[in-house]
Amino acid sequence: MNKHWRELIEDFRSLILNFQIENGNELEEFRIKFLGTKNILKPLFAAISSIPNEDKKEYGLLLNQLKSLADEKYSQFKELSSSTENKSTEDLSLPADLTRIGSRHPITLVMDKVVSIFSKIGFQVVEDREIEDDWHNFTALNTPDDHPARDMQDTFYLKDRNDFLLRTHTSSVQTRFMTTHRPPFRILAPGRVFRNETISARSHCQFHQVEGLYVDTNVSMADLKQTLLFFAKEMFGKDVKIRLRPSFFPFTEPSAEMDIYWGLKDETDHRITKGTGWLEILGCGMVDPAVLDNCGIDSKVYSGFAFGMGIERQAMLLYKIPDIRYYFENDLRFLRQFKNA
Ligand code: PHE
């Protein structure tokens, strides 16, 4: 008897495994036979009362495995048939299956918007490498050897070549461009940057910036301010308020940070602006003459301004995204929400 029920289950197992499914009809046959209301596994479940007590547990377990096997086989073939089956080979007038169209990532949406705003006023997009050398990321930008940003704690250096690093800001594109082009120029450099930060809801070890650089004769701080105001209005609406706070960067002099007033309409606003309603979106300043000279541009003839803005936080406010980690997890439930954005 013992052997008998084990053998019986084994027989059903092979029956499921060997059942040929090559078309929709066979798939339906399979469903009726193993999963339908009168499926052939049912009597086995009913027979549990006749199984000796000490075997009941094992018997039940094996039966359930049998059932899952049938379930799995069915859903596997069902998926296959719905992706390949042309509903009816005869009727060519039926509409084609719609392929699922992807959506653009919120970071891409915001970066594209920034690029399109600045292209209206003559900025040209330039892209460059993410793995940089120390000179283009730090030295040429006037960052002294003992500056904390150069620390291993802040910057990812390559393991075997520690004169190379993952760029910590898109300002490296400034030096790449200035060493190979002569002014006047107006460029915009969108891209990914990396810092050795602990990952949390507010900060990540990778994020995105858009860098701007304008070099010509007689470029002034007033030009910078007008350009940024123009940007803020286009991006956040014509009533937006901005403020420039004095700041410090080794490669600009004077330097400032720009905040926009977003307001405190809801919970995300409170959290992202730390309860102030103001959001810092960029660092900027007049290109330090030493940087121009480092790159072979005569600082007695030319001057320029530069800015570098963070993208993640702007996107958080614009789309009410509560946590920066969502950007990098590629969860389709998150990404699909930007279909119509
Ligand atoms: N690179 C700076 C940062 O990452 C931003 C910046 C760019 C500041 C250009 C001034 C000029 O914080």
Q: What descriptive keywords fit this protein?
A:
341 residues; alpha+beta; BirA Bifunctional Protein, domain 2; 2 domains; seven-stranded mixed beta sheet; two-stranded antiparallel ribbon; elongated; binds phenylalanine
Describe the structure in your own words.
The protein has 341 residues and is of the alpha+beta class. The chain folds into 2 domains: 85 residues; 233 residues, Bira Bifunctional Protein, Domain 2 (BirA Bifunctional Protein, domain 2), CATH 3.30.930.10. The protein has 13 helices and 9 strands. A 7-stranded mixed beta sheet has the order 1-4-5-9-8-7-6, with helices on both faces. A two-stranded antiparallel sheet has the order 2-3. The model has no long low-confidence stretch (mean pLDDT 92). The protein binds phenylalanine (PHE). The site of phenylalanine (PHE) has 12 residues, from strand 7, strand 8 and strand 9.
Question: Which CATH class of the largest domain is shown?
Answer: Alpha Beta
Strand neighbour order, sheet with most strands:
1-4-5-9-8-7-6
Give the termini separation. Answer: 66 Å
Mean pLDDT: 92
Annotated CATH topology of the largest domain: BirA Bifunctional Protein, domain 2
Structural class: alpha+beta
Number of helices: 13
The helix content, as a percent range, equals: 25-40%
Q: Catalogue the unreliable spans.
A: none
User: How would a textbook summarize the main sheet?
Assistant: 7 strands, mixed
